Amino acid sequence: MAIGKAERLMNLALCLMNTRRPLSKKELRESIEAYREAWQQGSEDAFNRMFERDKDDLRELGLVIDVDENALDGEIGYLARRDRNRLPEIALDAEEAAALTLAARVWQQAKMSGAASGALQKLRAAGVPFTEEQGHTALEPRIPAREAAFEPLLTAARERRPVTFDYRKAGAATPELRSVEPWALECWRGHWYLAGWDRDRADARVFRLSRITGKVRSRAGTFTGTVPEHVDVRAYVARFAGEGATGTATVRLRRGAAFPLSTRALSSTPVDEQWDELEIPYGNGLGADLAEFGPDVIVIGPDDLRADVIDRLRAVAGVSQGE
């Protein structure tokens, strides 16, 4: 079984920090299983490339690695001195500790809740002044992450690994396979979105996680597209998911339903005991969003938006009936 990159980096960091003299690449190769496998199954070049990438990654993470060009009979040696890589003691005041507690609660509905809780316990053991609170506070944030694709995509984005998944576009009858280099995820208006490089289209794209069907599959290799220094997921949503409004639309919304839609309303007027009439921003792609709310939304105008939503609903109904 291939050893994960995170474990490989940890092993390299431990070797470099737990030695009193610089270690050569040959010594590191013999000490770290992943390097030994790369050398045995590939070549010296394969090991060298892996080692250089890992060394650069550790430096990006903040590890100071010293290089001694005459350490071992002319061979280059590597060493991470503890006195240069010691973190300062953590000192948080009560307000900062409360903010961390609040942030940890955000992930209580996600699989990262255990990691967040464990981190707080370690900080508490180190003397950070966390206050034990009973029950719920007035401010209780939640970011739901129920989609099965969330965790594998988050891991792939962090480790810079390309993925493939089946994706059903809004109004589409069947999903299609997408090959993506994931950049970042963000929750907006109750939905999780992934921004990344679509290899087949050779362009940046945004994907809503609720429309990913099946499993997210990792692929070998490195990213081919350039990762932006700052990934603004919301900007990509605006570009591809119809958030760039050019006008307004009138819709009727069943009261108590489609909350994300009601938050976008410019105005809202009660129609009867069940329905409210809303004015909402209208841009390219709004029809796809409205179609997902099904019978809870009725489009009053404009006519082209109404026709778009009806066509999408008919397409979905046709598929469900086996047409």
Q: Please give the largest β-sheet.
A: 5 strands, antiparallel
- Strands side by side in the biggest sheet: 7-6-5-4-8
Assembly type: single chain
Beta-strand content estimate = 25-35%
Count of helix runs: 11
Write a structural description.
Mean pLDDT is 78; it is low at 319-323. With 323 residues, this protein is an alpha+beta fold. It has helices at 5-17, 25-31, 33-41, 44-60, 94-106, 113-125, 150-159, 233-240, 259-262, 286-291, 303-320; strands at residues 23-24, 66-72, 75-79, 163-167, 176-188, 191-198, 203-208, 212-218, 245-254, 267-270, 275-283, 297-301. It contains 11 helices and 12 strands. A 5-stranded antiparallel β-sheet has the order 7-6-5-4-8. Strands 10-11-9-12 form a 4-stranded antiparallel β-sheet.
Secondary-structure blueprint:
Blueprint: H1 5-17, E1 23-24, H2 25-31, H3 33-41, H4 44-60, E2 66-72, E3 75-79, H5 94-106, H6 113-125, H7 150-159, E4 163-167, E5 176-188, E6 191-198, E7 203-208, E8 212-218, H8 233-240, E9 245-254, H9 259-262, E10 267-270, E11 275-283, H10 286-291, E12 297-301, H11 303-320
Antiparallel strand pairs: 1-3, 2-3, 4-5, 4-8, 5-6, 6-7, 9-11, 9-12, 10-11
Helix pairs in contact: 1-4, 2-3, 3-4, 5-6
